[in-house]
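In this section we walk through a basic example: taking a raw amino acid sequence and producing a predicted 3D structure, encoded as discrete structure tokens. The instruction is simple. Fold the sequence below.
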Amino acid sequence: MADRLDPIFNPKSVAVIGASRHKGKVGYAILRNLIVNEYQGVIYPVNPNAHSVHSIKAYPSVLDIPGTVDLAIITVPADAAIEAAEQCARKGVQGLVVITAGFREIGGVGEERERKLKEIVRSHGMTMVGPNCMGVINTNPDVQLDATFAPTPPPRGRLSFMSQSGALGVAILDHAKSLNLGFAKFVSLGNKTDVSGNDLLTSWENDADTHVILMYLENFGNPRNFARLARRIYRKKPVIAVKSGRTEAGGRATVSHTGSLGGSDVAAEAVFQQTGVIRAYSIDELFDYAMAFTRIRPPTGKRVAIVTDAGGPAIMATDALIEHGLEMATLAPKTVASIAAWAPKEASLHNPVDLIASAGATEYQKGVEAVLADDNVDAVIAIYVPPVVAHEVDVARAIWQAGKTSTKPLLCTFLGRSEESPGFVELVQHDVPSYLYPEAAARTLAALYRYHEYVTRKDGEFPDLAVDAPGAAKILDTAKASKKNRLTELEALDLLAAYGFSTAKTRLVSDAGEAEAAAKAIGFPVVLKAVGETLVHKTEQKAVAVDLRDEEDLSAELSKMEKRLAKAGVRVDGYLVQEYVKGGKETILGMTRDKVFGPLLAFGLGGVYVEYLKDVAFGLAPITDEDAKRMVRSIKTFPLLAGVRGEKPSDVAALEEALLRLSQLAHDFEDLKEIDLNPVIALEKGKGCRVVDARILL
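The resulting token sequence is shown next.
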């Protein structure tokens, strides 16, 4: 794929189809950017109504150009763009960037245009970015390609950025320059008719110019391929993404903008966590993270020290650090003593180290050096509230000089200053990430540590579990032949048993006599459940009775249940008599098939409380054994499974295996739309887990 994208990023010649003499036209801006930013190849303006554009000889069509054309930038209206693409194909052009809008994003006639455009590109082996995009940039000195209409050219740097929004791309390039953030490559993807985000990930994986990959995504073309690529790439270089369309309304806006579904945000979050992608929730966060990831190493631990000249901002930073999962370092006694030797008597010597408002460059350099040298400290945030502007450069210089001999990350907040302030510029020019507010610095440091956790964790393996796939297929085929969209509970339990789940012994009965016989075969105590199409939440509908210890209990409860449900107008198709699984903790395992991402797995504490606690972890199937471990351990209530206050620990390993079996089942059978295993009883460690209730939709 890197070779296939060479005509886009490394063209020896570029034709601008629709090159214009008129300011305000896209064809004017693109040709101007190529010239002003000193593109190192040959430029061919294409305009049938002009002899020259920007003093460069123009040609009526791409077919009239005498030399070879590697890349064509198409800016003419949508109908003319199809003809231009056909001419490029006949000319032998290898790369296209179609700026023009009016394709799939408008529906109807636009969809037909895009189909034709795609057919031309694929049938002639061309590579195309767009349509409906703002272009591409490669700042490599041997190329210096700025084939966009953005007014602000980016400085050369180590970031490569892909965006589905052209307008957002313009704003990003403009703002990045004010932050002194440089780019290696920039691509506005538009409708992603040919080149996708996954193609760019593949190209940039081993690109020596790209150290950090940034993404603005509205949808995933192929989420499974993205997951495979991201799992591989994040160990080589950070991938930081903003995924918009988090809400239902945002999802609808995504479809209208790009013509494609964005998928649920829960699924997107699961993909990012599984694949080591750092997620930013806003463009501000994306820039905050880019500022740090291109300048400093991630911390190897959670312990953070703060050096400040004001208590309020330090408290805000402390709160933000804790909220994002980091810790305040406990300074070593020798560190405290060393600071006490020179600090004002009013200073607070314990973390946060408050040097009070009179602190200047000397105090900051000594304070930052002292905490960076402490073995109990993994990272430092320096907060400075400048009393007068004249001193801020001196303090900034003292801070970066204090950090230059340490391998630990150092971040800074110059409160109340803008990106143009002298202190900010001094810091970022010497590779100290600087932020306007303490919360941003804390959030960014947490993202750096999260990346450290990603790159040091085990990816795990996709286990090949022993299952009876033909038996499971037979159950599903029978249900589909009956045109069912939901398995009966017995069918569901049988399907699970075929995939190696341990299920509670269960019998379907129709009357009291059959119920007693079933209970004797299973062994008391038992559970009685009514079954029927409308009986989904059995506990709420009082359609479950547990711990029935003999025939008398069973008969009495069956009679009461029949009358209660009949009075409520609930149709009952029969009853299940089930083994009563005693003790243990109730958990839930689930799956829903996302329209874009595929099978999304869920795990949490179960029973009647799951909808209220909302303490659930998610993963995208297929998951590895390490993914399963992380899912189980990531819920806030995991300590209840691990054993608290003298309770015996639950069989966590059995829950992890159950998640892996659910993953394989969902991955193997695309007809499975939704699976709800609630509860799954986690027994004591070493005794496994048992599925006692299952709802499966097709």
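Looking at the output, two observations stand out. Confidence is low (pLDDT under 50) at residues 249-262. The two ends are 38 Å apart (CA to CA). In the next section we compare this with other chains.
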